[in-house]
Design brief:
The chain has 161 residues and is α+β, with helices and mostly antiparallel strands. Helix content is 21%, strand content 12%. Bound molecules: heme C (4 copies).
């Protein structure tokens, strides 16, 4: 076990000797990825609401144009996002999408002033990307849930005081 850990650590150091701040691979955590599993067969481009499965739970409350999916999602290659200048980017680079309009957050994000960075091994830091905190379709509420308040030992569940 010790052996394995060491190997992984040294690999990380070799691979990321230049990139000291890392963003986790999103494609493991984005629901319904890979998209082309279905979308290679689906040819529609204008969404009809309410969206059918598997997208029935998506909420859209962002800027006015948020229901224009192709503003951010590549129309033909659903496994990619797309910048306003039509450059295709990976889901791992979604912060580039956000800072097109939230320009002031770019430098803040890079410097660690907005967002969160957690250190791990010496020199290598993990940086939370925008969508780990903000739902891209409805960014107002952070995606995390607060812990429930501690229960007072003398208080029964649901009792009024
Ligand atoms: C299990 C199948 C399935 C998967 C996987 C899937 N979708 Fe879809 N998606 C659909 C269906 C069905 C529709 C509705 C198509 C229609 O309106 O006729 C749809 C509609 C959409 C639309 C609305 C515009 C359009 O083309 O109709 C977008 C945007 C979209 N999906 C994005 C994605 C993205 C991004 C992923 C991957 C993260 C993804 N989908 C994964 C089945 C899927
Ligand atoms: C402001 C840019 C933006 C717009 C507009 C947008 N999306 Fe997304 N969407 C994203 C980003 C960024 C992600 C990846 C989030 C992540 O990494 O967790 C995403 C993820 C998704 C996913 C995969 C996550 C899941 O819960 O299944 C689906 C499906 C999806 N979008 C559908 C749509 C549809 C349908 C529309 C239009 C009605 C749309 N999006 C409009 C930025 C956008
Ligand atoms: C095309 C421009 C555009 C893009 C791309 C965009 N936003 Fe926004 N965003 C806006 C606008 C405009 C508002 C203000 C909306 C309003 O007040 O109605 C906003 C509002 C927000 C807010 C504040 C919400 C609130 O109500 O307090 C957050 C947080 C946010 N965006 C995060 C993101 C993230 C994260 C991304 C990338 C996934 C992103 N935005 C991509 C234009 C954009
Ligand atoms: C570690 C979590 C975290 C990360 C990462 C993060 N944010 Fe935020 N952001 C917040 C919180 C918390 C707020 C304040 C509460 C709210 O409005 O939802 C906020 C507020 C905002 C706002 C609205 C208020 C303001 O200051 O203008 C925007 C826009 C925004 N973030 C964009 C972004 C963008 C773009 C990125 C990536 C470059 C990003 N955020 C990364 C947690 C985060």
């Amino acid at each position: 076990m010790m052996m394995i850990t060491k190997i992984i650590v040294s690999l990380l150091f070799v691979g990321q000797a230049l990139a000291q701040v890392v963003i986790d691979d999103r494609t493991f955590s984005v629901p319904n990825f890979p998209c082309m599993k279905c979308h290679s067969e689906i040819k529609t481009s204008t969404p009809t609401f309410p969206l059918p499965k598997p997208h029935e739970d998506l909420k859209f409350k962002h800027m006015e144009d948020v229901k224009n999916c192709k503003l951010c999602h590549d129309q033909n290659d659903r496994d990619k996002l797309r910048l306003i200048n039509e450059k295709k980017i990976s889901f791992n680079d979604s912060h580039l999408l956000c800072i097109q309009c939230h320009g002031e957050k770019g430098p803040d994000f890079r410097s660690g002033a907005h967002g969160k960075q957690v250190g791990s091994w010496e020199g290598v830091k993990h940086r939370y990307t925008c969508v780990e905190c903000h739902n891209p379709h409805a960014p107002k509420f952070p995606q995390w849930k607060a812990d429930p308040p501690p229960i007072h030992p003398n208080r029964k569940t649901g009792a009024k005081h």
